[in-house]
């Protein structure tokens, strides 16, 4: 068996990720996005501290919630099951917007109660929001401000590469460049409690499957890296998980982002350099009760009524192909998944959709309908 080479957190000169744009809110200055840098030199930068304002919104009838400060996203959480249907509208500079559907993601960490939450960007300059929800009289809401907080210093290399060495892979084409946690501006203090203890200690299991999700909301005007920071805050702090629930995330331009913290070495997802059949992934929180040994990739956007962009699809195929090549997972082969912690079992294909595991709309109806031909079969053809 040929050894697979895994290079992390040190991008080769000449390889670049898509530039992440940033648009300022009408009344606030444009924040500096994390800089992208080639080379292996450690990187120091600053990102705004995430500010939040929590409220309880009356949903029947809807009543306007007006946060005291500006906000970029609103998170809506339910302590029980997700409402049958829910929507949000904003008080924007030009008046009330139309109602926007909220798509809730459930689950999370296996050892915690299931969490249902939705996240949505706010139009620039919004001063308030209303929530309408069927079957839920009140909703716990959080207005998230990603621009106005004091600067948080972020250390570390901003880019890395996940790929199979062309010296051992005669086909080539499996290189995946990604933005590290430092690259997108992860505030690592969010992973720890007041006593300095890690909220979600790492645990590892042999890789059995890979699962694809959508975030179920659009990217706000602050850009994709800010969107990842909003998801990170929602998962780590508001949901109480201690970290982001996905291993990797992909934006509409095809940019790849490191997710769940996997240890102090410069290697995402895995415990150590992986070999096919022997790769161990850090346990994340993306398929409730079926997380150990299950790599989760989230494509940023809502794909209920449309497909991801071609760049996002191409990036997803390339990333899945590299991960299948590295781990030995066959994307189309049927597997008998067994959770090594709780014993739960499922019959799935090696690369599956979130909805294949649990009753959920994820990764969106349109994307789910075309997933096999648009993604899984393309991954499989590239591995022949």
UniProtKB/TrEMBL annotation:
Where do Polar residues bias regions lie? 38-61
* Cited Gene3D superfamilies: Peptidoglycan recognition protein-like
Q: What is this protein called?
A: Peptidoglycan recognition protein family domain-containing protein
Q: Which domain of life is it from?
A: Bacteria
- Signal in keyword set: yes
* Pfam families hit by this protein: Amidase_2
CDD domains in the cross-refs: PGRP
Biased composition annotated in UniProt, kind: Low complexity: 24-35
Native organism is Nocardiopsis rhodophaea
Q: Which residues form the signal peptide?
A: 1-24
The record's keywords, sorted A to Z, are:
Signal
Q: Member of which family?
A: Belongs to the N-acetylmuramoyl-L-alanine amidase 2 family.
Outline the segment boundaries, as ranges, of region: Disordered. 24-65
Q: Which residues form the Peptidoglycan recognition protein family domain?
A: 176-333
Q: Which InterPro entries match?
A: Amidase/PGRP_sf (IPR036505), Amidase_domain (IPR002502), PGRP (IPR015510), PGRP_domain_met/bac (IPR006619), TAT_signal (IPR006311)
